[in-house]
Write a structure and sequence with these properties.
CATH architecture of the largest domain: Alpha-Beta Barrel
Strand order of the largest sheet: 5-6-7-8-9-10-11
Number of strands: 13
Structural class: alpha/beta
Bound molecules: D-glucarate, magnesium ion
Distance between the termini: 55 Å
Number of helices: 15
């Protein structure tokens, strides 16, 4: 079953002004839809779907790999991983990440350097895995379509029929500057966060809640968690400041949060500060920032830095790697959760298949999908949240179909934008000072 064509279509979909430690989400998220056209051996073909971030470098690298994929077998994902690594080896330093690519430039953050750990700049291998992951998902989707079986079965079979997700709460402006308020409205106070959570829970049935923190001073974020606890006495709660707290701040905050949280995610940056905090709090610490590959496991275990890791197939190198992470976590005694970034339905389906095949995953997974579901590229009807969970799609492969008209529309949006990178920080800085309410900085 030979690969005939790789099509990569960059798209841009609408996103609300969600605040994070780095800035604020821009009005559109850049993603890419990967289509792998494979001969079915009977004179026809199937198309496997994948999805990844739409940064310019990722598109360039997919294009580079695409030209060498043609004629290879869709079943040989091991060889594909080797090919991707070989073609992309050493390329990270050649890539133009843009003059103000904030996600790469933690070094120019405004908080004092002594309050930070090592900058979480991804190693080249990190980027290579991200390219491979999109292709591996498309290969598995195609394999499933060819065999008439589900991706979860290619991953070893399901251990659950439906995957629980957490409601992912964000501090939020009422709308993008210059635009009307969106349907979610503002969330800039504890009451605003609770109202957002109420809406999420009522609409999707989430049974766990995560607040993206690192936006306001810690005591305000702790107040929001207390308000959530009062409103949702039985929901496990999480807070994720994305590593921007100093160790000193985190020690105080951890004491206050000890009776409130299921886990505290990346309160400080770097494995050493996480370890220092872990040794002085009973609160479980989780990460998707200081353990992002197998290379990080040994140090994190030795330093006892974390108790929960958030996997993510986009980052760990595909669905099989995401499932295998469960075995690693079980072996070293870590809990496993799942990280998310803004994504479309192809990735939600992929995340759901991986989680359904991972016995060691005992925490509800993160997803940004409720923020973006109105602008999806998959045919509606397959993916929905019931009691906070997504039922594993039943069809062959990922079980979702591409809505080509929707993809074309979002591709036109991408072209009209003319933007090639995500830059939350530049967007925050571009907001006129008289826009109210302006995000307070620490
Ligand atoms: O979407 O603003 C966001 C998040 O901050 C995202 O970029 C993070 O990667 O959700 C993520 C996390 O858990 O760190
Ligand atoms: Mg996180």
């Amino acid at each position: 079953m030979i690969i005939r064509e790789l099509r990569v279509t960059p798209v841009a979909f609408a996103d609300p002004p969600l605040l994070n430690a780095d800035g604020v989400h821009q009005p559109h998220v850049l993603r890419a839809v990967v289509e792998l056209v494979v001969a079915d051996g009977r004179g026809g073909e199937v198309t496997g779907l994948g999805e990844c971030a739409g940064h310019a470098w990722q598109l360039d690298w997919l294009e580079l790999v695409g030209s060498r994929l043609l004629g290879t077998s869709v079943y040989e994902t091991g060889a594909l991983a080797g090919l991707v690594a070989e073609l992309l080896a050493g390329r990270a330093s050649d890539v133009d990440y843009g003059p103000d690519a904030s996600w790469r430039r933690w070094a120019d953050r405004t908080d004092p350097p002594e309050s930070r750990g090592p900058a979480p700049v991804p190693a080249p291998a990190f980027d290579v895995r991200r390219v491979y992951a999109a292709l591996e998902v498309a290969c598995l989707d195609a394999q499933g379509r060819l065999a008439g079986i589900s991706v979860v079965d290619l991953l070893g079979g399901r251990v659950r029929d439906a995957v629980p997700y957490s409601g992912y709460l964000f501090y939020k402006w009422p709308g993008h500057p210059g635009a009307d308020a969106d349907e979610w409205g503002a969330a800039l106070t504890p009451d605003g966060v609770v109202a957002q959570a109420r809406r999420m829970v009522d609409r999707y049935g989430f049974r766990s809640l995560k607040l993206k923190g690192g936006v306001f001073p810690p005591d305000e974020e702790i107040a929001a968690l207390r308000a959530l606890r009062a409103e949702f006495p039985d929901h496990p709660l999480r807070l994720d400041p994305n590593g921007v707290w100093s160790l000193k701040t985190a020690l105080v905050a951890a004491d206050e949060l000890a009776d409130l949280l299921e886990y505290l995610e990346d309160p400080v940056a770097g494995v050493e500060d996480m370890a220092a905090l872990a040794s002085r709090t009973s609160l479980p610490l989780a990460t998707n920032m200081c353990v992002t590959s197998l290379d990080d496991v040994r140090t994190a275990v030795e330093r006892r830095a974390v108790r929960i890791v958030l996997g993510d197939h986009h980052i760990w190198g595909g669905l099989r790697a995401a499932v295998a992470l469960g075995d690693v976590c079980r072996a070293v005694g870590w809990g496993l959760s799942m990280h998310s970034n803004s994504h479309l339905g192809i990735s939600l389906a992929a995340m759901t298949h991986a989680a359904a095949a991972t016995a060691a995953l005992h925490h509800a997974c993160d997803t940004h999908y409720p923020w973006n579901e109105a602008d999806d590229v998959v045919v509606p009807g397959t993916l929905s949240f019931v009691d906070g969970s997504v039922v594993v799609p039943h069809g062959a492969g990922l079980g979702v179909e591409l809505d080509r008209a929707a993809m074309d529309r979002l591709h036109d949006v991408y072209l009209a934008l003319g933007r090639e990178h995500r830059n939350d920080r530049a967007y925050l800085r571009s907001v006129p000072p008289d826009f109210a309410p302006r995000m307070p900085r620490r």
